[in-house]
Design brief:
Protein name: Phosphotransferase
Number of helices: 15
Number of domains: 2
GO molecular function, one term: D-glucose binding
Strand order of the largest sheet: 1-11-10-9-12-13
Biased composition (Acidic residues): 474-492
CATH class of the largest domain: Alpha Beta
Shape: globular
Structural class: alpha/beta
Radius of gyration: 26 Å
Strand content: 15-25%
Helix content: 40-55%
Order of helices and strands: HHEEEEHHEEEHEHEEEHHHHHHEHHEH
CATH topology of the largest domain: Hexokinase, domain 1
Largest sheet: 6 strands, mixed
Distance between the termini: 91 Å
Catalytic activity: a D-hexose + ATP = a D-hexose 6-phosphate + ADP + H(+); D-glucose + ATP = D-glucose 6-phosphate + ADP + H(+)
Enzyme class: transferase
Oligomer: single chain
Length: 492
Amino acid sequence: RPVISRSSDQMTPLPFITHSVSLIISSYNHIFRQQEKLKEVSARLKRDLIRGLGKHSHHRAAVKMLPTFVRATPDGTEKGDYLALDLGGTNFRVLHVRVVEEQQRVLKMDSKICAIPQEIMLGTGEQLFDHIAACLSEFLDSQDLKGQTLPLGFTFSFPCEQKEIDKSILIRWTKGFNCSGVEGRDVVQLLKEAIRRRGDYDIGSVAMVNDTVGTMMSCGYRDQSCEIGMIIGTGTNACYMEEMKNVKRVEGEAGRMCINTEWGGFGDDGSLRDIQTEFDVVVDQTSINPGVHTFEKMISGMYLGEIVRLLLVKLTEDKLLFNGQTSEALLTPGSFETKFISEIEEEGTGLENGQNILTELGVKWDPVDVRVVRLVCDTISSRSARLCAAALATIANRIRVNRGLDHLKTTVGVDGTVYRKHPNFSEELQDTVRLLVPKCSISFLVSEDGSGKGAAMVTAVAQRLALQSRLLEDSDGEDEEVEEDEEEEEDK
């Protein structure tokens, strides 16, 4: 991209934005605009996916490939009323969701947000689940649903090992929670026990839902070819429908299962070291979890602003920006927010936004500085979109090869602030995926409330499958009786 000269506001080539800026910026662009390098990254992730699925290799895999026990996507026949519970931070949501078959729509009838006080976050597990059960009771009263026993989708956004659709063991608390007596226990059982202690209402079957799976499922009712879910926001993750015969850690060969890849951990074994820059290394080392979630730290919203800040500090120290003068704010970790990147890259208002942001950060800028900052932002967001595309291409191509298809047509349900809010990210991601996997036609559908409506949809599909398998068992029973009758007739 050309750079402006200091004497003009026009976009004209500029020899004097020196070697060093060019080197830093072009080192990013050289690596991440090279199709071959992206294909190499994609091939590395492919190896990691296979390792994560393996029965014996899983424990040492950087990409964990967790079975979700979600065995199908919506087929359009799901219907009825469901509850959804979304717990992932200092607030949790309770929702009443209605699936309307005739309109192929998932409607949020109503919802309630409940706060979780600090003393409960640090108290006992019994106190936490009693608090959740009490809020759920109040919500059911307000909706006049107390007399009904509705199925519930439970989005529980903490590290868990899922054993079944309705059994999930908490591995460890994160996000400031430290409730005693919960780690190593089944959170569905703890919820049900709390509801039983109250005794004033009951719930039906429970489905545990990862938010990425919810993203896929909330789109799957509108578009039944949606078999991939992706989140690129504060963090990043993806899920997809894998052939059961490849899921070595779960018994059974027939059908498919949704796999929660946990692709944020890609590179935790050092496989991305050659494409990490000095800025990525600093971001990792100064984070609360060094050496963990390497890929996430290169592409997700929690870290992009900090990568830009470190690059701007480097350019300033090299006397290539702001006359070599930094500011206290610019030198403060976290001061350059990721939303600034979107604002600075906004078409039309970007340069004015950039001026306001740099003024807020206390640096003395001129028009060239603002354009260089925009170039830095574009470089970092573009790298994120392209790396994300390389990872998504791996999954799409895996589905195609799994099914022995010459050409795959599929849809990705997607969510997250980086995808939704950045002015160019979604377009660059889609263009790059098309380049990397020409044998896959991929549509993108922005999810509507994956952790609410999506959780209800997971429950609806689980119920449909349970009903179908019951019907099969019943019909098997009838066949046996008929055969016995026939045998008796023959004996006579």
